Amino acid sequence: MDGTTPVAFKVNELTPDPDVQFDPKVTKSYVTYAHRLAARGLVNSSVGGMVIRVAHPGHEHGVCYAKPQGISLEEVEAEDLVITDIPFGRILRGERATTVGHQMNREILRLRPDVNCVIHLHHDEMIAFMAAGYDTIRSYSLTYGYLMQKPAHYLPASVNVEEDVAPIKTFIQDTNCIIMKRHGFTVLGRSVSEAYHRTCVLVSEIKRNIIVEMLCAQNGKTPEYISDEELAYMATHGDAVMYPALIKKKA
């Protein structure tokens, strides 16, 4: 593959596939985690989204479950979901159109076969933190590096990979988290559970950044953050610490 997005079909073209059916377990998982994100106060109206990839013998990249446009992760139920293919965004099951951000999610899945869930949120504290002049989210906890396992990639406000996915191929292999200034963040995971946990630890780290900056402004001390070298070590040992059963399974 050349890393460019196929354009042989129109996005959201209705192309029902009789071999693609909704899996009750996947739809339940989608709704459960969507509502968990909302319960944490991370959902703003109908913006943001989540996709879950499911392997399928008739589709090289698998198929992905997504919510349609106009429905928030807070409101979404099983009957609202649609299934699309990954290269083109054709609707294989369901009838409602997806959001513009779905093409970003699909491109990430296409370029990262190890990723099976993408979560994109317009997070208030992250947007505020970046708007206040901070350009990097520092790590102050031992959990962030072990869970995220790759450094975040920062995009300037002028770059919107929801509308133009072309830049994604230049950085997506080296990150599990995209920070989109004045926009939100996008988190990747091998499963919906991992993507959710990475989202939660990122949100917590952003909160810690704000608290640390406020406290240091009051007491005149310098923040003590985890170094890049320490984060690199944590990244290589993440599965051993967070998912020892996964390591045992691979062995």
From TrEMBL:
Pfam families: Aldolase_II. Transmembrane segments: none annotated. GO terms for cellular component: cytosol. One of its GO terms (biological process) is pentose catabolic process. The keyword Lyase applies. InterPro entries: Aldolase_class_II_sugar_metab, Aldolase_II/adducin_N, Aldolase_II/adducin_N_sf. It comes from Reyranella soli. GO terms for molecular function: aldehyde-lyase activity; metal ion binding. Residues 28-210 form the Class II aldolase/adducin N-terminal domain. This is Class II aldolase. Keywords: Lyase, Metal-binding.
